[in-house]
């Protein structure tokens, strides 16, 4: 994040592509990426700040060159950028994927008594 103190929670995503033709449970392609997930308030604040920055830039451009003001033009001067997430190909097509369902995973944590250190260091949680 461009803002100080706003940290996103890393989330790893994996997409497996299967072929109906080969009738196998093995994927024909596997890719992964890591995205950052922000809490609602942080995301709202980030969006507001980005909109303010964009409106300031737009104002500066118009102040520097008043001839750019075309009332009949429908396209904004500054296009909103498209965020892109690039997935990286994985060569391991053998390992079975794990579907993470928060309600199920977190209810398992509540059933088993363990300390915070045990839960954080557990290799089965990755």
From TrEMBL:
GO MF assignments: DNA-binding transcription activator activity, RNA polymerase II-specific; RNA polymerase II cis-regulatory region sequence-specific DNA binding
Entry keyword annotation includes Lyase: no
Pfam families per record: CP2 (PF04516)
Q: Which domain of life is it from?
A: Eukaryota
Where does the record say this protein resides? Answer: Nucleus
State any GO CC term: nucleus
Chief localization: nucleus
- Pinpoint the Grh/CP2 DB domain residues: 1-101
The entry's keywords? DNA-binding, Nucleus
Protein name according to UniProt:
Grainyhead-like 1
Species name for this entry? Answer: Nothobranchius furzeri (Turquoise killifish)
